[in-house]
Structures are given as C-alpha cells and as structure tokens.
Amino acid sequence: MQLTQAQPFPYNFELKSSALVIIDMQRDFIEPGGFGETLGNDVSLLQAIVPACQAVLEAWRRARGLVVHTREAHKADLADCPPAKRNRGNPALRIGDRGAMGRILIAGEPGNQIIAALAPLPGEMAIDKPGKGAFYATGLHELLQQAGITHLLFMGVTTEVCVQTSMREANDRGYDCLLLEDCTESYFPAFKAAAVAMMRAQGAIVGWTATSSHLLPALAALPAQPQHC
Ligand code: C5J
User: Exactly one of 162, 176, 177, 182 is catalytic; which is it?
Assistant: First the structure.
C-alpha cells in the first residue's frame, strides 16, 4: 500500500507487517476528573478526535491489521513511578491519589480504562506503560518483533508528549512510523502543530504524517478479509 499524499513524501507499507498503535486514549486524559484535568488542562480538546480515531480503528480491524493500545499506567504501590514524576509541579491531585474516577493513573482503576469508543477487543495488545514512551519498560519491541512488524501507524494523545516520545523510540528501533494528524491531539494546539512539523521535517527524521482521509480509502481498497470463527 502507498499513501501518496503522506508528508514529506509517500509512505509505503504492507498491512501484514504494520501495526496501528493507539496511544493513551484513556479516560484519565480525555474525561473530566482525570490526570489531564488535574494538571490544569481543558480535556474537551482531546474529545474531538475520537470519531476520526474510531473510523480508523474500525477500518483497520476490518482489514485484520494488528492493533496495539497503550495506557499510561502505574502499579498500585507506585513501585514503577519515580518520585521525580509524581512530585513534579503542583497538580491538584498527584499520581496515585484518589480522584473522581479512582486513583489517578493507576492500572485497573476506572479512569485508567481506554474510553468505551476505542475499547480493546479480546486478542488486541493492550500495554500498560509507566513512562511517556510505549517502549520504555514494556516489552513492546519484542512483541512487535515476534509479530514481524516493521511499520507503525500512530494515533492518540497527547501529540507532543506520549505520542511523540513513542514515535521517537520506535524510530530509533528501526520502525518506519506514520502519524495520523487528525487522530492525535494536544491540550496545546500550538504544541501539536510544532510536533507534527518537527517529526516530518528533514526528510521524515522521525517519520511521516498523513490524515485518516488518506488512509481510509487505501484500507477500503484491500480485498475482503475472511472472518475468524
Ligand atoms: C501526558 C500523555 N501528557 N499520554 N501523557 O502526560 O501524553
């Protein structure tokens, strides 16, 4: 497959060696009362990308592509949360404190669940990550290697934090990465614009960018895939 309109130049990928990576579309960041809001952000900005993400996820599933969901999540005893992360700044609630959706950024808590519209299906990878990047302390690289994956298409939040960190980690591990611009968002629109621009600058130094309107027709043109029983 080729996304001819990708920037800075066309992006070539095969479905069988590609994964759709959905970064941190969890209630903690997207709904009121979670980590995003405790940091003083307007979470409604992030809600706007959900329909575009849903359309891509459904098309990718129909094509039988590999899906990876991530959650920024810490263990209940905070053993994997460095004090430097927990104590940074002056948030209304810190990681591990009890908020409106349970303990902030703790695995298994209601706020840590991926939003219902994008909830993982049985069999899809769902990775808890203690860092901003999806490859730090997760084993994701090994799982992708076992699955023969060489290309990663990214969606999720927030663009300049966990999405950009994950894409840079993936790029350094040798994956050809593409960011779906209308399927990622930041609490700071200017940061999103800068992150998107810097990733594709200098001849795709981190990776490519495209929109879901480029990807969806390419997926729709694939031959129908057999249903699994
Ligand atoms: C942040 C994330 N922004 N998922 N996490 O702290 O981008």
Answer: 162
